[in-house]
Amino acid sequence: MSYREENDQVILTMSREDFQHLLFALGEAAGCVRKFGGDLQGELAFLNRLNQGNPNYTPYQVGEKKS
After folding, report:
1. pLDDT in tens, 16-35
2. Distance between CA atoms of 51 and 44, rounded to whole angstroms?
3. What ranges do the domains of the chain cover?
4. Which burial class, exposed, middle or buried, applies to 43 when counting CB atoms under 10 A from its CB (0-12, 13-18, 19+)?
């Protein structure tokens, strides 16, 4: 895994296995947010941005909260 900065952006290079681990960890974190009554919009939007350009990813779509 490697880290570098270029043009005010962070560029991470990692194996597919490390990327899957990252996605799993972020999914667990989103589950905790949901469990404790938080709003998932920000977390799911982050996951969608993280996977922009990934042809094997289906973006999350979150509807309005039910009362």
Report:
1. 999 999 999 998 888 888 78
2. 11
3. 15-53
4. buried
Q: How many helices (H) and strands (E) would you count in the chain?
A: 2, 2
Asked if pLDDT for residue 62 goes beyond 90, the answer is no
List the structure tokens of 2.
Answer: 């490697």
Strand residue runs (E) in the chain = 2-6, 9-13
DSSP single-letter state for residue 14:
-
- Structure-token pair, residue 12: 């991470």
Please report where in the chains the tokens 């681990």 appear, as a residue. 21
Question: Rounded to the nearest 5°, which phi and psi values hold at 59?
Answer: -60, 145
- Cβ neighbours for 44, distance < 8 A, ≥ 6 positions apart: 30, 60, 62
Q: Which two tokens stand for residue 29?
A: 């974190």
